[in-house]
Amino acid sequence: MTDDIFVRTVKLPNKIRAFTMPGYDGMNVYISEDLDEDQRIKAYRHELRHIVGRDFEMEDVQQIETDAHQEVIQRAEKVRLREKSNY
């Protein structure tokens, strides 16, 4: 497999914003066409964290999502604390 990432905008069920599947030629990221540009960027970044984190080598999907969301919460908390200290 190569390090290429192929991004496709497709029709997905309402509750699915994006998903990634490994392919023989790289990683395939599928993003819902119903999202606006900002939501698509956020969805892509979420999927990119899975790729960079090598989550596709893990088996526990629930743990993968928990870890990914925990990282986002920790970053948001750092930003909030930084903004609070500026006052």
Estimated share of beta-strand residues: 15-25%
**Secondary structure: helix percent:** 40-55%
Number of domains: 1
Coarse shape: globular
Structure class: alpha+beta
Distance between the termini: 49 Å
What number is the mean pLDDT?
79
Report the major sheet.
Answer: 3 strands, mixed
Number of strands: 3
Question: What would you say this structure looks like, in words?
Answer:
The protein is globular and about 45 Å long. The model has no long low-confidence stretch (mean pLDDT 79). The chain has one domain. Helix content is 47%, strand content 22%. β2 and β3 form a beta hairpin. With 87 residues, it is α+β, with helices and mostly antiparallel strands. A three-stranded mixed beta sheet has the order 1-3-2, with helices on one face. The chain is built from two helices and three strands; from the N terminus they run βββαα.
From the structure above, extract its key features:
alpha+beta, 2 helices, globular, 22% strand, 47% helix, 87 residues
How do the strands and helices of this protein lay out in sequence?
Layout (H helix, E strand, L loop, with lengths): L4 E6 L7 E6 L2 E7 L4 H16 L8 H25 L2
Parallel strand pairs: 1-3
Antiparallel strand pairs: 2-3
Can you give me a brief rundown of this structure?
With 87 residues, this protein is an alpha+beta fold. It has two helices and three strands, in the order E-E-E-H-H.
